[in-house]
Description:
Helix 1 packs across helix 2. Helices cover 73% and strands 0% of the residues. By secondary structure, it is mostly helical. It contains 9 helices and no strands.
Amino acid sequence: xxxxxxxxxxxxxxxxxxxxxxxxxxxxxxxxxxxxxxxxxxxxxxxxxxxxxxxxxxxxxxxxxxxxxxxxxxxxxxxxxxxxxxxxxxxxxxxxxxxxxxxxxxxxxxxxxxxxxxxxxxxxxxxxxxxxxxxxxxxxxxxxxxxxxxxxxxxxxxxxxxxxxxxxxxxxxxxxxxxxxxxxxxxx
Length: 188
C-alpha cells in the first residue's frame, strides 16, 4: 500500500532543493513542477470542480512558498507538508462557502476498506460502506481518504493531519472497528 515511499537518498535530495528554495525563491519552481499534478489531483478529489481546484492549488503553492522558511523536515516527503496546506485550504473554502465537500471513491478503494473490516467484498457491502461513511465525522473521512483513497503511509497521514504516525494508525483502526459494527448491524 506504500506507493509513495521514498528512499533516504530521495528525501535528502528533496531537502537539498528545499534548502536552496529557502535561499532563492526561484528554486521553488522545482518543487512546484514536481508536485503540481499530485496536489491538483489531491484537491480535485475533494472538490470535483476543475476551476475551483485550480484556485485552491494556486493558494496552496502560494502559501507554501511564502512560508517555506517555516518548513521543518520530519522524515517524510515534502508532499506531506503540501497536502496539509492543501487540506487546510480546501476546508477553509468549504467553511467560507458553507458547502458540502466532495469525496471521490473508486471501487478498488471501497474493496480494500471492506476487506480490512473482515467482510466479503460485494456490491451490497459497498452500499453499506457508503451509507456508513455518511455517518462518520469529517475528520474520520479525511483520515480514510488519505489512507485508502490516496494510499498514503501512516507516517505521511500523521504529518498531513498534524498527528503522530501511531495516532494515525490507532484512529484508522478505530474507524474500521466502527465500520465493522455497522456491517454487523446491517447483516443481522
